[in-house]
């Protein structure tokens, strides 16, 4: 079709008396200048009339995705094809009698057409990637990985077509040669291939998405995922440093994803305090009278006293502390903590809420809190946790309990000389 159009234009030029001979440099120069002028006018009309009109329609439209295409200048890049195609059509006609120069320019223009087409498609792909980010599709699918892979594929296709145009050979001729170099291609693009396969696995199993908080100690990553690309996963750590993790490492190695915490709306507090075993004792009548005035224990004491009295009815020598059942200060403390946590409006009531006693160690008796806050934001979570333990440490003396603490220099200095001698 191109050759037929060129023949028609050449015949028309001959009819009007325009002929570019090798010896007629002036006529050739004039025709070349006229071709450039026509190409410039065609580009101006396309850019200032057609593209401007379409962009005006896009701005007025109700949808937003077309605005993203406009911002990436897809139409502007396509408009560059017009002058190239005009020159590709006219210059070989003008240089009919200069075969070598005409062939070189013709092939150069064809290569430029391929380059500008791929450039416009790249802009379309970038726009698609941004639309996926805006619509939160990237949280479910690694869109950027697919975009990058398609760009790589287009690059190879464009490269092969360009080489075939320059060499005046069929693209199939060069594609057939790639089979021989498959091993080399696999070696050079090993990370890219592994990254693409890993990206599919990450997407299919929803292992990691943009915005997830992940922790991978092997790579020093602990923060939010900024970007999932073809080869790497970009993590912005909480100290604002950036960690780049190979995509296939997230499939082959272990990592922690905190997405479930965010989706469920509860963040776990799992912390214990160690009670000095020497401060644990049975409650006296005076202790029970005093602690029964605590609001969170008003229901606890009547119930437990009734249960203990019933259990001790058949017990002889009840005056002996080891006989029968009795309330302890640490047991009452656990009951208080349970009621206190259940009435804390900053804790998630639909998740596990437990106060438990762990096995005693040389550091004392651990009392562990296992609860979930209803605010997963880091700063708020730390504040809630600190408030709870501030309160717990402050009320320990009310139950006659002491927190275990290794002796310090102040403790050693407070020992009286006579006590040390003894």
UniProtKB/TrEMBL annotation:
**One Pfam match:** MS_channel_2nd
Query: What does the UniProt keyword field contain?
Result: Membrane, Transmembrane, Transmembrane helix
Which topology term describes how it sits in the membrane? Multi-pass membrane protein
- Coarsely, its chief localization is membrane
Q: Where is the Mechanosensitive ion channel MscS C-terminal domain?
A: 341-402
What region holds the Mechanosensitive ion channel MscS domain? 191-259
Does the keyword RNA-binding belong to this entry?
Answer: no
The record, for InterPro entries, names: LSM_dom_sf (IPR010920), MS_channel_C (IPR049278), MscS_beta-dom_sf (IPR023408), MscS_channel_2nd (IPR006685), YbdG (IPR030192)
Q: Where found?
A: Endomembrane system
Query: Transmembrane segments in this chain: where?
Result: 26-45, 78-96, 108-128, 149-167, 173-200
Gene3D superfamilies the UniProt entry points to: 2.30.30.60
Tell me which family the UniProt entry assigns to this protein: Belongs to the MscS (TC 1.A.23) family.
Q: What is this protein called?
A: MscS mechanosensitive ion channel protein
Specify the species.
Shewanella japonica
């Amino acid at each position: 079709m191109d050759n037929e159009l060129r023949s028609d234009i050449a015949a028309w030029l001959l009819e009007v008396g325009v002929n570019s001979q090798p010896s007629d440099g002036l006529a050739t120069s004039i025709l070349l200048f006229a071709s450039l002028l026509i190409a410039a006018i065609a580009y101006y009309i396309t850019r200032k009339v057609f593209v401007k009109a379409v962009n005006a329609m896009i701005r007025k439209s109700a949808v937003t995705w077309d605005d993203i295409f406009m911002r990436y200048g897809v139409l502007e890049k396509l408009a560059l094809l017009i002058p190239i195609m005009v020159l590709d059509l006219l210059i070989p006609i003008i240089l009919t009698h200069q075969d070598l120069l005409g062939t070189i320019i013709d092939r150069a223009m064809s290569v430029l057409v391929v380059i500008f087409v791929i450039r416009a498609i790249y802009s379309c792909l970038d726009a698609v990637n941004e639309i996926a980010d805006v619509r939160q599709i990237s949280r479910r699918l690694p869109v950027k990985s697919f975009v990058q892979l398609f760009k790589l594929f287009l690059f190879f296709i464009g490269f092969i077509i360009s080489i075939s145009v320059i060499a005046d050979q069929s693209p199939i001729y060069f594609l057939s040669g790639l089979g021989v170099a498959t091993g080399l291609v696999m070696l050079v693009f090993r990370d890219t291939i592994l990254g693409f396969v890993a990206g599919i696995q990450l997407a299919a199993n929803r292992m990691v998405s943009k915005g997830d908080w992940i922790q991978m100690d092997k790579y020093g990553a602990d923060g939010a995922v900024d970007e999932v690309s073809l080869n790497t996963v970009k993590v912005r750590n909480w100290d604002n440093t950036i960690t780049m993790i190979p995509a296939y490492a997230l499939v082959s190695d272990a990592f922690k994803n905190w997405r479930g915490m965010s989706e469920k709306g509860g963040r776990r507090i799992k912390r214990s305090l160690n009670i000095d075993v020497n401060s644990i004792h049975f409650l006296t009548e005076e202790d029970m009278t005093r602690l029964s005035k605590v609001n969170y224990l008003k229901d606890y004491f009547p119930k437990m006293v009734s249960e203990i009295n019933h259990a001790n009815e058949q017990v002889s020598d009840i005056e002996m502390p080891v006989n029968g059942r009795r309330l302890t200060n640490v047991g009452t403390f656990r009951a208080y903590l349970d009621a206190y946590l259940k009435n804390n409006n900053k804790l998630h009531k639909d998740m596990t809420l437990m106060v438990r006693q762990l096995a005693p160690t040389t550091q004392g008796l651990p009392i562990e809190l296992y609860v979930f806050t209803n605010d997963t934001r880091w700063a708020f979570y730390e504040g809630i946790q600190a408030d709870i333990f501030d309160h717990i440490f402050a009320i320990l003396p009310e139950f006659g309990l002491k927190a275990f603490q290794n002796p310090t220099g102040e403790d050693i200095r407070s020992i009286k000389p006579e006590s040390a001698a003894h």
